[in-house]
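Structural prep section.
Before we set up the soaks we want a predicted structure of the protein with zinc ion in place, mainly to decide which crystallisation condition to try first. Input record follows.
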Amino acid sequence: MTGVVLGVDVGGTTTAAGLVTAAGEVLLEAQVPTHGAGPGRALETITELIESLRDEAVRRGTTIEGIGVGVPGIVEPESGRIGNEIHHVPELAGRPLASLLAARFDVPVFVDNDVNALALAEWTFGTARGVRSLVVLAAGTGFGAGIVLDGRLVRGARGFGGEFGHAPVKFDGRPCWCGGRGCLAVYASGRGIAEAARERAGRSGAEPSMDADPGAVTAALVFRRAAEGDSVAAAVIDEACWALGAMIATIVNGLNPEAVLVTGGVAASFATLEPRILAFAAEHALERALTGTTVRIVPGDKRVTMRGPAALVLYELERRSERATSSARPGGGRPRGYGADE
Ligand SMILES: [Zn+2]
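Run finished without errors. Recording the tokens verbatim:
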């Protein structure tokens, strides 16, 4: 690749974009409020942001080889259409974003779930570079995950591949905002931890630090109070660590990847409790399986989120050239149905 790729990370609050080299270096970046152009106008925001970076690339004489967009929702793998599960940017639901942008900017455009893109970035540029299989768990306000297995991103039949945040860790657990019950997200996401603390503090009535202003209770505060010895906060955090450990064990036993990386906004807090989380994981994982998996908890870097969608472009362009090579070989070029590609 001689030029750069343009990565756009669409968040519920902020959309960040950048020109990224094949080595993952961010040459130029910009960020704007997702709804700065008004409610329901995220598509205009995305388009204008791409336009301004494209113009800058032209001024520098740099070619844009492709555009990648990460969105906080499910993307249907075949059509590239955004699903209904995109609650923070609902105006993008049902939009064929990749084809809209490709028509406008005349370069290949790829759109995927933001945590799938993040997993590709960790695999392409990050500490997990070179492994054959990797699971990234992203503990933020919600709880996302991305799976790379045997060198391929796992999207699943409808784009839900990697939704470990909504896998149950407790069958009779608290109801989840997804409609399920006892999901990992209810215990180990920022929103889940804050809600659990508010609920427990309300019940006990004995923790003025936590229920004086329920709106002010954040996951970071709950971690801090737990470290200071607050019993309600400590119980919530203990449950969060156990839930995360159990999910790591599920992944180790079910997929046995070379690496599991826990990242995202809450990961900095989890990192201080890493030995405890790993002990919970060891309690549930098959011993020999766990020895083959390296588990790391690394705080996410909010400044380089555009590297995810940039990695998505590199990944898809590479796949495209693999396909072209295999169809040029004798016997290649057969129709690609089930299992033909992977
Ligand atoms: Zn759920």
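Observations: The CA atoms of residues 105 and 171 lie 48 Å apart.
Flagged for discussion at group meeting.
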